[in-house]
Design brief:
This protein has 324 residues and is α/β, with parallel strands linked by helices. It has one domain: Alpha-Beta Barrel (TIM Barrel). It is 38% helix and 20% strand. It has helices spanning 15-21, 61-70, 98-109, 140-157, 171-181, 202-208, 228-240, 254-263, 274-285, 291-305, 315-323, and strands spanning 31-38, 44-47, 50-56, 75-81, 114-119, 132-134, 137-139, 161-164, 188-195, 244-248, 268-272, 309-312. The strands form 2 sheets. The protein has an 8-stranded parallel beta barrel with strand order 1-4-5-8-9-10-11-12, surrounded by 8 helices. Strand 8, helix 5 (171-181) and strand 9 form a beta-alpha-beta unit. It is globular. Bound molecules: ligand PBG and zinc ion (ZN). Ligand PBG binds next to helix 6.
Length: 324
């Protein structure tokens, strides 16, 4: 059918018709809210490069938990900021470290909230890399044990899902085995499968104080130019036992989200990362864009590309808009 028989505008005429023909739904059901948990007391400190986002100490999480429950946010992902860093990330594996304590606190405050923990040591190492450094290089196999110990500490504290973001080869299988050996077979793994070496992580590294002190992450995170490689990475993680796979960042990688959605049947997460958040906030502060509309359009686009769930710093404000 062609014009004038076909007129596309007929189904765009009213809001109710548009509701009926809408292909993609955006709701709070899809949101995971990232939380920065800092060692210390009484901390609720705004992050300079991420307006509206905070570092929280465990004792202050009560206010946030209440809001998450009221808004019906289904899950959170926790990032730890220890007060001591060393070359081997000692703080990352402690049973009473900042993340295990935050997990317990959140599970007490909001038992239904899905608590996911980021498993990576770059916030805990003095050199800022995501594994053990030997001779100026991140040693893949030497890092696996450390990452698994970290995942175990989180899982023993009650985390529902552990999310390795380090990009070491073989870590999903290694963590799965370690969990199963400890009778933690009910703990799921959300794998940061296609994680790119992206400049969009800049504000996060300020927030978590996790910038590498030498070199960069291109020896383990993926080259932004590669798409087929993302499918290999996802396939490996699926074979190693991932329950949920992730593409990160989201906006510059919508094609990767779509391809992974089409090729795999596991639940798919997309990470709407810090730089994506901060760019939107910066333009909105200058009055150059309508922040709320751009936010909802962005989140809708990530869903349309094929993501089941979105890790996003916008979770609270988007949930308020969608429910209000
Ligand atoms: C830790 C980690 C990073 C992010 C999530 N986990 C930073 C990095 O890899 O450098 C980025 C999240 C964001 O930018 O919002 N490996
Ligand atoms: Zn890392």
């Amino acid at each position: 059918m062609q014009f004038p028989e076909y007129r596309g505008r007929r189904v765009r005429k009213t809001e109710n018709i548009r509701r009926l023909v809408r292909e993609t739904r955006l709701s709070v059901d899809h949101f995971i809210y990232p939380i920065f948990v800092q060692e210390g007391k009484g901390i609720h400190a705004e992050i300079g490069a991420m307006p509206g986002q905070y570092r929280w100490s465990v004792d202050r999480l009560k206010e946030l938990a209440k809001e998450l429950v009221a808004l019906r946010i289904p899950g959170v992902i926790l990032f730890g900021i220890p007060d001591r860093k060393d070359p081997t990330a000692t703080e990352a594996v402690k049973a009473d470290g900042v993340i295990p304590r935050a997990v317990k606190e959140l599970k007490e405050l909001a038992p239904e909230l899905t608590v996911i923990t980021d498993v990576c040591v770059c916030e805990y190492t003095s050199h800022g890399h995501c594994g053990i450094v030997e001779n100026g290089q991140v040693d893949n196999d030497a890092s696996l044990e450390l990452l698994a110990e970290m995942a175990l500490a989180h899982a023993r504290a009650g985390a529902d899902i552990v999310a390795p973001s380090d990009m070491m080869d073989g870590r999903v299988g290694f963590i799965r085995e370690s969990l199963d050996e400890e009778d933690l077979e009910g703990v799921a793994i959300m794998a940061y499968s296609a994680k790119y070496a992206s400049a969009y992580y800049g504000p996060f590294r300020e927030a978590a104080d996790s910038a590498p002190q030498f070199g960069d992450r291109r020896g383990y995170q993926m080259d932004p130019a590669n798409a087929r490689e993302a499918l290999r990475e996802v396939e490996l993680d699926v074979d190693e036992g991932a329950d949920i796979v992730m593409v990160k960042p989201a906006l510059a990688y919508l094609d990767i989200i779509r391809t992974v959605r089409d090729e795999f049947d596991l639940p798919l997460a997309a990470y709407n990362v810090s730089g994506e958040y901060s760019m939107l906030k910066a333009a909105a502060e200058r009055g150059w864009i309508d922040a709320n509309r751009v936010m909802l359009e962005t989140l809708t686009a990530i869903r349309r590309a094929g993501a089941d769930m979105i890790l996003t710093y916008h979770a609270l404000e988007a949930a308020r808009l969608l429910q209000g």
